[in-house]
């Protein structure tokens, strides 16, 4: 079947025209970037793992009443989602000091924050996704006050759920990013969760050892990126204990099958 029209290509995903009006096919790539794409590389099988992990989390969030763009997973690397108008704000939810927060404020990484902190960044790679306030958002009309209330409420609810989800499998949720989109119905719209939730956009530390199980392994040249992503998927019950039995790269799998 011919590939449908490509709509957009980002750092980690490609979006294609969906089979029905109002739908998009979201394809997960193995490409890895850091520091606003100043560092680039590939994590073999990352797209497959992120597709499964994001599907799992979005499905669970939908079950507790969080509206999302997710419809269903189509195959190893693609999922069908609702077409939305992305709100140009990246929402960062922080439970523990790490990354840029530690650097900017001189707080030791790993310090538990007194309360959950929500930060907003203006989505613009050329500008480095600068940190902005709710006043900036209101002033420039990036989102209405009502939309920001909905976004903040959903962010806290998602954080509460995910903290429990990951704690149950021995992982500490340090921080994560969210994106939201407007789902239009005629002249009216509502804000729903969009994009993905995966180790690409979350900091996940093993509760017992403090080992990083996320993209920081790539950012900081720690190595073991694939193994870390696999470990998250395994603990979530998305991979069998024997990782060798799980297909992460379809081309490699086909070549192996043809030799057998």
UniProtKB/TrEMBL annotation:
<dbReference type="GO" id="GO:0004639">
    <property type="term" value="F:phosphoribosylaminoimidazolesuccinocarboxamide synthase activity"/>
</dbReference>
<dbReference type="Pfam" id="PF01259">
    <property type="entry name" value="SAICAR_synt"/>
</dbReference>
<keyword id="KW-0658">Purine biosynthesis</keyword>
<dbReference type="GO" id="GO:0005829">
    <property type="term" value="C:cytosol"/>
</dbReference>
<dbReference type="InterPro" id="IPR001636">
    <property type="entry name" value="SAICAR_synth"/>
</dbReference>
<dbReference type="GO" id="GO:0005524">
    <property type="term" value="F:ATP binding"/>
</dbReference>
<protein>
    <recommendedName>
        <fullName>Phosphoribosylaminoimidazole-succinocarboxamide synthase</fullName>
        <ecNumber>6.3.2.6</ecNumber>
    </recommendedName>
</protein>
<keyword id="KW-0436">Ligase</keyword>
<dbReference type="InterPro" id="IPR018236">
    <property type="entry name" value="SAICAR_synthetase_CS"/>
</dbReference>
<dbReference type="InterPro" id="IPR028923">
    <property type="entry name" value="SAICAR_synt/ADE2_N"/>
</dbReference>
<comment type="pathway">
    <text>Purine metabolism; IMP biosynthesis via de novo pathway; 5-amino-1-(5-phospho-D-ribosyl)imidazole-4-carboxamide from 5-amino-1-(5-phospho-D-ribosyl)imidazole-4-carboxylate: step 1/2.</text>
</comment>
<comment type="similarity">
    <text>Belongs to the SAICAR synthetase family.</text>
</comment>
<keyword id="KW-0067">ATP-binding</keyword>
<keyword id="KW-0547">Nucleotide-binding</keyword>
<feature type="domain" description="SAICAR synthetase/ADE2 N-terminal">
    <location>
        <begin position="6"/>
        <end position="235"/>
    </location>
</feature>
<dbReference type="InterPro" id="IPR033934">
    <property type="entry name" value="SAICAR_synt_PurC"/>
</dbReference>
<dbReference type="GO" id="GO:0006189">
    <property type="term" value="P:'de novo' IMP biosynthetic process"/>
</dbReference>
<dbReference type="GO" id="GO:0009236">
    <property type="term" value="P:cobalamin biosynthetic process"/>
</dbReference>
<dbReference type="InterPro" id="IPR050089">
    <property type="entry name" value="SAICAR_synthetase"/>
</dbReference>
